[in-house]
Amino acid sequence: MSDAPLRKNTPALDAFWMPFTANRQFKAAPRMLVAAHGMHYTADDGRQVLDGTAGLWCVNAGHGRRGIAQAVERQLNSLDFAPTFQMGHPIAFEFAEALAEIAPGGPAAGLDRVFFTGSGSESVDTALKIALAYQRAIGQGTRTRLIGRERGYHGVGFGGISVGGIVSNRRAFPQIPGTDHLRHTHDPARNAFTKGQPEHGADLADDLDRLVALHGAETIAACIVEPVAGSTGVLIPPKGYLERLRAACDRHGILLIFDEVISGFGRLGAPFATDFFGVVPDLVTTAKGLTNGTIPMGAVFAKRSVHDALMQGPDGIELFHGYTYSGHPVACAAGLATLEVYREEGLLTRAADLADDWAAAIHDLRGRARVTDIRTIGLIAGIELESRPDAPGKRAYEVFVDCFERGLLIRVTGDIIALSPPLILERAQIGEIVGILGDAIDRVA
Ligand SMILES: Cc1ncc(COP(=O)(O)O)c(C=O)c1O
C-alpha cells in the first residue's frame, strides 16, 4: 500500500472531457483509482484492484517504484526544464546513450540513433516524417506515400490515424493524402485458439507487392505496422509474416517501421519485438514502458544509415522537427531510473519465464460461454467474445465493469478483452486474473 493519503472521489466531474471514454456513462457511475502500488490500484472506496493491463500497457515494472520517484525528484530539484533546440543538457544525451546500448535488434541492427518525443502518437508522426525526409535526402523525393495496415493503431495524430486502420478513430477526421493499407492478419476461421504465432497468413505480407503494383514503388516511402497489434484487440503476426514484409520492403526500397509503443520494453519476453521475432526494421517507435508510464515520453530509434543520410549538406538544422519536450530532463531521469529497475530485476526478459504458464491459464477459458477465440504471446492475451447482434461491444464492457467491481482491471476493445499485466506479475496472480475474469464471463454471458 502507498503511504500517500487516499483522496476521496469528491471532485465535480463536468470539466474534465475524458479521452476515449463514454463521458456521460462514466460520469453517471464513475470508477475512480486513487493510489497504486506494485500490482495493485486502490479504488476510492479502498478496494484493491489487480492491474491486468499495466495501466495502459505502460507500467511494465509495476506501480510506485521508489527509485523512479526519487530520480524524478532529484532532477526537478536540479534542472527542471531546459530546451533541446540548439541547446543541450547532459541527461538527454545520457539517456539516449543508455537506450542505444539496449536498442532493438542489438548492436548489429544499428538502430542506435534516438529521437525523443512526448508520447506514442508523437513517436509515430516523428517516424513517418523521418522516413519522408530520408527518402528525399537520398534523392527519392517522389516517395511520399505511407502504407499502414487495416486494424492498426498508431495513436491519434493526423499521421497516425491516416496509417491506422480503426474506423471509429478515422470517421470524423480527414486523413493526410497518399496513404494506403495492407490487409489485417486476423483470421479466426483458420487460427482460432492459437498460443504464440498463428500458422496461417504469412502470405498476407505480399499485399505490399499488390500496393506497389497499384501505386508504383517510386511513390512509397514507408510501411508501418505494430509487430503485435494491441489496441485493435491483440493480433499476433502469423509465422513468417514479418520476415516476408521485411523482404518486400527491401525489394522495393521502402522503409519498414515497427510501432513498438506497446511491444517495447519486455512485453513479449525480449527487450523489443524486434528481438523477439528476429526481424529488424529501419525505424522503431516507442513510448509507454520507456518511463514505466510515470512521465510522458516517447523515443524513436532510427538506423544509423537513416540518421546519417540526413546529416549531409551545408551546416544548419538537418531535420525541421521536434517538440518543446523532446528530451525533457525530468522524463529522461524517469527513463534512466526505469532502465535501472528493468536491468536489476531482469524485467525485459521476465515475460519469457511466465509466458507458458500465462498461456496455459488463459487458454483454460476456452469453452466458457461466448468465448470465440483466445490469443496469447509473451505477457499479452486477447479473449474474443461473441458480440450481441444488437449491441456490439456491450458484452465485453459488462465483463469489464464486473471485473472492476470484483477487483481486476482489464481493457476491452469492441468485444475483445485485452490483458497485459505488469511484468512483475507473480504466478499466483495469473490464477487470480483468470478466476475473476472467468467468473465475470460466466455471469455476463
Ligand atoms: C501501437 C501504438 N502506437 C501508438 C500509440 C499511441 O500512444 P500515445 O497514446 O502515447 O500517444 C499507442 C497507444 O496505445 C499504441 O498502442
Structure description:
This protein is of the alpha/beta class and 445 residues long. The protein has two domains: 23-60 and 346-444, Aspartate Aminotransferase, domain 1; 70-345, Type I PLP-dependent aspartate aminotransferase-like (Major domain) (Aspartate Aminotransferase, domain 2). It is 38% helix and 16% strand. The chain has 17 helices and 15 strands. It has helices at 23-28, 54-57, 66-78, 90-101, 106-109, 120-137, 158-163, 167-170, 188-191, 207-215, 241-252, 273-277, 304-309, 329-345, 347-363, 394-405, 427-444; strands spanning 33-37, 40-43, 48-51, 113-117, 145-149, 179-182, 220-225, 255-259, 283-286, 298-302, 371-377, 380-385, 408-409, 411-413, 416-419. It has a seven-stranded mixed beta sheet with strand order 4-10-9-8-7-5-6, with helices on both faces. Strands 1-2-3-13 form a four-stranded mixed beta sheet. It has a four-stranded antiparallel beta sheet with strand order 11-12-15-14, covered by helices on one side. A hairpin with a 2-residue loop joins strand 14 and strand 15. Helix 3 (66-78) packs antiparallel against helix 14, helix 4 packs parallel to helix 14 (329-345) and helix 16 (394-405) packs across helix 17 (427-444). The radius of gyration is 22 Å and the shape is globular. The mean pLDDT is 97. The protein binds pyridoxal-5'-phosphate. Pyridoxal-5'-phosphate binds next to helix 6. This is Beta-alanine--pyruvate aminotransferase. Keywords: Aminotransferase, Pyridoxal phosphate, Transferase. Its cofactor is pyridoxal 5'-phosphate.
